[in-house]
Amino acid sequence: MPWFDQFPWLIALAPFAGLFLSAVVKRRDPAVIGDRVYRHDPPARVSHWTHALGVGFCLVSGIVMGARFTPAFVADGPDAILWMNVHFVAAVSFLFGTFFYLGNTVISRYRFKEHLPTRHAVDYTIRHYGRTIGIKKFTMPPEDKYFESEKVAYIMALACSILLVVSGLVKALAHVVLTLPDAFMNVLTWTHDIAAALMLLFFVAHVFFAVIAPFSWKTFPSMFTGWMPLGEAEKEHKGWLARLAAMGRVEGAPAPVAGPAGEEPSDTGSSQTVSAAVEQGGQ
């Protein structure tokens, strides 16, 4: 028997568990500490990975089972039940991560604002990707914690997540307790599948630009450890460093860097490098 039939209460519990956990966990703000920058605290990483893994396995299992506009790769029977159970577990993870993030956003609204595009979103996105592919005429002003291109993609992911959550929860309720008109369920299923297709586009692009592309390799580990190198932040996120410095979130200094033979070691402390970022960020 599919787990959607055996454990429907988990679908209802996951959002409440995410909201509850967001209310009791302690958050840690980003800061420059020595030669590293603390970028993502544990709650941010937990919400990211539970959401991301949930989305990933929901997409894979959904593709296997088929959508309104794609063929199914399994027929009714044990194989279909297996993939439906995968979809169930992934949905629980997705709901938990999404509502954990939602709760954190309600409590710390400035974290949500960090993700929102500014009026420069289109211009900066064109410049960012133009520079990425080697077009030298494009220059970038100091970027914040998240690139403007990431902020634009975030809006797409947010919209898709809302559609998936609402349509998915109603579909789950209809599967267990509600009796809804066939026409309504057809529209709901189309909505769910189209949102999933759009989320797939975002997911593939996100994995490429955040994980596979070489320019992401110094930042991506922060999703596991929380930390990124100060040098990378100075290169890509001068605006963010300026903001951290203005808020007094700079602690310590990295060890002196040895110079050529016969010269004194040079002190490249974070106070100097971040001060430079403040100056450039304010230009």
UniProtKB/TrEMBL annotation:
<dbReference type="GO" id="GO:0022904">
    <property type="term" value="P:respiratory electron transport chain"/>
</dbReference>
<protein>
    <submittedName>
        <fullName>Cytochrome b/b6 domain-containing protein</fullName>
    </submittedName>
</protein>
<keyword id="KW-1003">Cell membrane</keyword>
<keyword id="KW-0472">Membrane</keyword>
<feature type="transmembrane region" description="Helical">
    <location>
        <begin position="6"/>
        <end position="25"/>
    </location>
</feature>
<dbReference type="GO" id="GO:0009055">
    <property type="term" value="F:electron transfer activity"/>
</dbReference>
<feature type="transmembrane region" description="Helical">
    <location>
        <begin position="81"/>
        <end position="103"/>
    </location>
</feature>
<feature type="transmembrane region" description="Helical">
    <location>
        <begin position="46"/>
        <end position="69"/>
    </location>
</feature>
<feature type="domain" description="Cytochrome b561 bacterial/Ni-hydrogenase">
    <location>
        <begin position="39"/>
        <end position="226"/>
    </location>
</feature>
<feature type="transmembrane region" description="Helical">
    <location>
        <begin position="194"/>
        <end position="215"/>
    </location>
</feature>
<dbReference type="Pfam" id="PF01292">
    <property type="entry name" value="Ni_hydr_CYTB"/>
</dbReference>
<dbReference type="InterPro" id="IPR016174">
    <property type="entry name" value="Di-haem_cyt_TM"/>
</dbReference>
<dbReference type="InterPro" id="IPR011577">
    <property type="entry name" value="Cyt_b561_bac/Ni-Hgenase"/>
</dbReference>
<dbReference type="InterPro" id="IPR051542">
    <property type="entry name" value="Hydrogenase_cytochrome"/>
</dbReference>
<keyword id="KW-0812">Transmembrane</keyword>
<feature type="compositionally biased region" description="Low complexity">
    <location>
        <begin position="253"/>
        <end position="263"/>
    </location>
</feature>
<keyword id="KW-1133">Transmembrane helix</keyword>
<dbReference type="GO" id="GO:0020037">
    <property type="term" value="F:heme binding"/>
</dbReference>
<feature type="region of interest" description="Disordered">
    <location>
        <begin position="253"/>
        <end position="283"/>
    </location>
</feature>
<feature type="transmembrane region" description="Helical">
    <location>
        <begin position="152"/>
        <end position="174"/>
    </location>
</feature>
<dbReference type="GO" id="GO:0005886">
    <property type="term" value="C:plasma membrane"/>
</dbReference>
